[in-house]
Amino acid sequence: MTHDARTGTLSHLDWLESEAIHIMREVAGQCANPVLLFSGGKDSICLLRLAEKAFRPGRFPFPLMHIDTGHNYGEVTAFRDQRAAELGERLIVRSVEDSMRRGTVVLKAPGESRNKHQSVTLLEAIEEFGFDCCIGGARRDEEKARAKERVMSFRDEFGQWDPKNQRPELWNLFNARTFKGENIRAFPISNWTELDVWQYIAREGLALPSIYFAHTRPVVRRGGALVPVTPLTPPRADDVVEEIMVRFRTVGDITCTAPVESDADTVAKIVAETAGTTVTERGATRLDDQTSEASMEQRKKEGYF
After folding, report:
1. 65 CB burial (10 A radius; 0-12, 13-18, 19+)
2. Within this chain, do residues 190 and 255 fall inside the same structural domain, yes or no?
C-alpha cells in the first residue's frame, strides 16, 4: 500500500484494494461455505493477490473453482493450475463436458458455443459442494447488465438473479446472509475499471498467461472483430487468413473470445494502450456479448456469472 507523505492520502489503487479486501473478509465472516472463482484470467489473478493480502499467512478460507467449457485456451488453463499449485490452495475444476455427459447440457449443434452453458455447470457445482457464496472478478464497467449488480448479488434457491430484488448497500454495509439453497455472488472488484486492473497488475508485479501480451497469431476479420484461427474456429471458404500481432484483453472460451490488434508486449505498454481506448474489453473482444444488454441480462437471470 502506497502513502503520499505530503498529503497523508492513499492512492486510488490503495482505496480500491482496501475496499476489495474488506469485501472478501465480509464474505469469510458471514458465509459458511464460500468459493473463489479462478479462471486464470487477469481479473481473477487480481482476486488471488487480494485474498493473499486479506488472509495470509493463513490459508484462504475458501477453495478455488473454475467452470471450464472444455474449449479454453491451453495457455490459460496451464497458468491456472500452476498458480493454484504455487499458492498451495485447493482447485476444483468442473467442466461443461461433465454436464453434457449427464445430459443436463444439450448443444443445439456440435459447433455451438458452450460459453452460455457454463450456467448449468456452475449451478450443479454449487449444489454439489453446498457453496453459499461465489466470489468472482466481474466489474461494473464491463457491460450494462453487470453495471446493475450489487457487490453482494443475491441469487434465489433456483440460482436466478432478479435485478429488482436486490439488497441495498448503503454506506458499504454488505449483507451476505442466505437461507439454505440461496446463494450470493460477491464481486470485490466491482468498482474497478480495466485500467485499474492493469495498473494493479503493474504495481504488484503479477504474472499472467502469455496470450495477454502481443504475439503473432493467424486471424480472420469477421463482423468488425478478429477471429483467431484454431481447430475450433477454422476459417470459412471466403475468409482471408492474416498473420498479425494481437493480444487478448479478456480470455474465455475460444469460440467467443477475440483478440485485438496490438504491439503491447509489456504490462507498461498495455497500461498505456488501455488508457487510450474508447471501447470496452467485452464490447471489442467477446463475440457472444455483441448482441444486446437484454441478452446478457437474461443469461444472468438463468445463473450466468
Report:
1. buried
2. no
